[in-house]
Amino acid sequence: MSIIHVPLKELFARQPWIADYFATHAIDATPFMTMTFAEAADALDDDRFSELGTDRAQFVSDFVLFVEQMQGLTLASRPRIRSLTVQPGRDKDGMPEPEGVTLCTGKVTAVVGPTGSGKSRLLEDIECLAQRDTPTLRTVLVDDRVPTDDARFCTEGRLVAQLSQTMSFVMDLTVEEFLTMHAESRLVTDISGTVSTIFEQANALAGEPFRRTHPVTGLSGGQSRALMIADTALLSAAPIVLIDEIENAGVDKTKALGLLVSAEKIVIISTHDPLLALSADQRLVIQNGAIRKVVATSDEEPRELLRLRQMDEVFSKIRNCLRRGESIVG
Amino acid sequence: MRLITVAGPPSSGKTSLILRAAAILKQGARIGVVKFDCLTAPDTAFYRAQGIPVKAGISGGLCPDHFFVSNIEGALKWAEGEGFDYLITESAGLCNRCSPHIKGVPALCVIDNLSGVNTPKKIGPMLKSADLVAITKSDIVSQAEREVFAFRVRQVNPRATVLHVNGITGQGAFRLAAWLDKATASSSVETLEGELLRFTMPGALCSYCLGERRIGEDKQIGVARLVDFAD
């Protein structure tokens, strides 16, 4: 049975977000609760529709579209990808790019290279699933196949989540309100449970703990980054996460990558930090707009990594020591 | 003529976004821009600096959207005379009750992440009736805020294609240009005579429309609507 012939009361109980359709049209739904959507549309004045810049038929067809679109946003229907393959294009001088690369779910790829070497260009090729139609002439395959036009243009930024140092929170909300709002927009069923999990994970990543009642705009750099990472890992629908530098923010970097990987994301991190670069499964060396080399993290490197982690721990210990007002000697 | 109407609140990034798309489109086509504005149009200098022919229409004391409708055919004739392939019109939807979008002409709404999550509900027809909604300033807000904002846009306009485009870095410009090319490929416009606006413009027929400045009940002649403050 079409959704327009189900009593509103029943629809609202099943999918509370349907009420938003009425809210966005500034219509109070209360008097129509016992009717079906089709009956409610019939009961509304013609004037009402012209005021809204629509007509009855469009009001009904938009409703059906609205429900379809919203259902497409639920966690269950998020885009799933196993791998992305970047096939070589051209470098900045038009010479053939030496290497391509395959990125897999649950794996971390570090992108290393000096500023201006073409890291952003690569990230953008991935974001728009380039088909030899961007300046680099690269081709990006999804699960070894050429993506459809729909996949390329109708994802409204749901394919790739991005985290960079320039990003900050701008909403005037507490941590709890903020996470609740995001969970609502993802049409999550267990909102308070989801909010608690993200809150706890974010606190586990942040150097300094924060409360649920803390305004998001007042969080420190490290706390903001920790909250963004936990939120992206657990609530964002995007199967690919691009991270631009998380160092120096007082965030537990190893745990942060672990959280994203466990959420079955394809993680791409652009970094100058040796610890992060070596934590990745592979690293891409970018020069003059092209992938010069793809280096898989070798078996010996983790040992070096261990040494780096120990050094990093020494640094954080000293940092915390100083913060507590203690002396670092003795 | 490949005609596109672009609308969005002031400072949402319309000009930067058009410049980004134009830089890609102009590799194979000639592009002209008409900027409709209320008081001044300093942005025309940015178009000239990029070598894009531009005309400004300043509405001054007139309702800017009514002004747009009276001048759109003239703009089209200018573009035809200049031999452009694309004509892009840019206007700020000024009272949030208007929309310059025309049936059969690809319509773009530009809205920025910083304007607040309730903005999609507030700006009405120019967003609601758009074919493509470009969300700007995505590089400075969190992923969660981008997702909530796009969700709110989608709630108001489930029909539109939603794209994140960054006017500063150019991220997303390629997809925008590809969309514009595709959307206008099959909708060549020779004249707009007889075409329909997508949305009725607000009634503007009272004494204040005609230059009255004094406040008072006896000065309100024509269409006036009063708020019931006792309610």
Describe this structure in words.
The complex is a heterodimer of chains A (330) and B (231). Chain A has helices spanning 8-14, 19-24, 37-43, 46-51, 56-71, 119-127, 149-153, 175-185, 191-205, 221-235, 253-262, 274-279, 301-323, and strands at 83-87, 101-104, 108-112, 139-142, 160-164, 240-244, 266-270, 282-287, 290-296. Chain A is of the alpha/beta class. Chain A folds into two domains: 3-71, no CATH class; 83-297, P-loop containing nucleotide triphosphate hydrolases (Rossmann fold). In chain A, strand 8 (282-287) and strand 9 form a beta hairpin. The longest helix of chain A has 23 residues, at 301-323. With 231 residues, chain B is of the alpha/beta class. Chain B has a single domain (2-202), classed as Rossmann fold. Chain B is 31% helix and 17% strand. Chain B contains seven helices and seven strands; from the N terminus they run βαβαβαββααβαβα. Chain B has helices at residues 14-25, 44-49, 64-82, 119-122, 125-128, 143-156, 173-185; strands at residues 2-7, 31-37, 54-58, 86-91, 107-112, 132-136, 161-164. Chain B has a seven-stranded parallel beta sheet, with helices on both faces. In chain B, strand 6 (132-136), helix 6 and strand 7 (161-164) form a beta-alpha-beta unit. In chain B, helix 1 (14-25) crosses helix 7. Chain B starts with a strand and ends in a 46-residue tail after the last helix. The relative contact order of chain B is 0.19. The model of chain B has no long low-confidence stretch (mean pLDDT 88).
